[in-house]
Design brief:
Elements lengths: L1 H13 L2 E2 H10 L21 H4 L1 H17 L6 E6 L5 H10 L3 H6 E6 L3 H10 L8 E3 L11 E6 L8 E6 L2 E9 L11 E6 L17 E4 L1 H17 L1 E10 L9 E4 L2 E3 L9 E3 L2 E2 H10 L8 E2 H8 L1 H11 L4 H12 L8 E6 L1
Length: about 350
């Protein structure tokens, strides 16, 4: 790919890339990045998220937002924010469910945070005619704090990359991306993983790590938790985070690349596959607390959705569409079963 050639040249002139830098360029390079050049969602894309699996997911998140607004005292003005809105499906379903309380929609200033131009276009298309109409900003800092904020971030943390560090017999090293030497004709060099000296930004984990194990540290995920905390502390409100990841400190290589719904080598064809790493909820929530916010603990997605009434909603859908009952059952299991998304995915809030 064009990006692979650029990365190889960069590594040859500047040295190995940290995994965080590599992943950041693969996802968001202005001309060749994965998210800056395509809409990757759904059956025709590379992966499917919960909102595309069933309308029930977005509807329940919409009802969570309405309930949060009521607990804030039903303010006559507030910001409903979604970070990383994908193709707009979640917000479309959420607003449909929110019609149960017209006052919520009247008070709502809908804000979407999306850096990808193709995805902004798809969101605008899908949300055409909805009330309220969305407006877009690029960062959390673009949100005013003179009104309460209710924020949704579904599968955002896993796109914020982490560096990887490896314990060796001689201490700690950073796992980076380099290049192999070209063949005698000057062709055929490939991107490879290797170990490099740590240049900063590393704290030894407080838990036991065996030699050869990988520890991931994401400054970007921690910064996101900190920035959310600053936002809700100044504006009041709550931020809901749903993602797959760990709810306690631990080691392991969680880097994953997906293309056409299949796992591929993360170093093959940079910019053409989705790259993700697990959300590190302990670090995100710790950063939020340090920045002055309150937090909930993590809860499995299955338990969270059941508490919101997913089984009741599924039963009503079965009653209205008996012919679709098997599909509804599969969708429910995908979202809530322990061997699918029910426990791997976690939900928590910063408020």
């Amino acid at each position: 790919s064009p990006l692979a050639a650029l990365l190889r040249d960069q590594i040859r002139t500047q040295g190995p890339l940290s995994l965080a830098d590599y992943m950041g360029q693969c996802l968001m390079h202005p001309q060749h990045g994965y998210y800056t050049t395509r809409d990757p969602f759904g059956a025709a894309g590379d992966f499917t998220t919960a909102p595309e699996m069933t309308q029930v997911f977005g509807e329940l998140i919409g009802l969570w937002a309405v309930e949060t607004w009521r607990r804030l005292g039903s303010p006559d003005r507030f910001s409903l924010v979604e970070v990383g809105p994908g193709d707009g499906t979640l917000m479309s379903d959420a607003l449909r469910a929110a019609r149960l309380d017209p006052g919520f929609l009247t008070a709502c200033d809908l804000i979407l945070i999306e850096p990808s131009a193709p995805l902004r276009a798809e969101q605008a298309r899908r949300l055409t005619g909805v009330d309220p109409q969305p407006r877009w900003v690029s960062t959390l800092q673009g949100i005013d704090t003179d009104a309460p904020v209710i924020l949704i971030a579904n599968e955002v943390l896993d796109c914020l990359p982490a560096r990887q560090f490896v314990k060796t017999g001689d201490g700690w090293s950073e796992r980076c991306i380099g290049v192999t030497d070209p063949n005698p004709e000057g062709q055929g060099s490939d991107l490879i993983f290797g170990l490099s000296q740590i240049t900063g930004g590393f704290e030894r984990p407080a838990y036991e790590v065996e030699p050869g194990q990988i520890v991931e540290i994401s400054d970007q995920q921690s910064a996101f938790g900190r920035d959310l905390a600053h936002l809700v502390a100044q504006a009041s409100g709550a931020a809901l985070l749903i993602d797959y990841g760990r709810d306690r400190p631990g080691s392991g290589d969680t880097l994953q690349a997906l293309k056409r719904h299949r796992k591929v080598d993360p170093l093959d064809d940079p910019g053409a596959a989705d790259l993700t790493q697990w959300a590190d909820f302990p670090r995100v929530l710790e950063a939020a607390v340090r920045a002055g916010a309150d937090v909930t603990g993590c809860r499995g997605q299955g338990d969270f959705l059941r508490a919101l009434g997913v089984e009741v909603r599924a039963e009503r859908l079965r009653a209205s569409r008996p012919d679709a009952a098997p599909v509804i059952d599969r969708q429910l299991a995908r979202l809530t079963a322990d061997d699918q998304m029910g426990t791997l995915f976690k939900a928590c809030a910063i408020f």
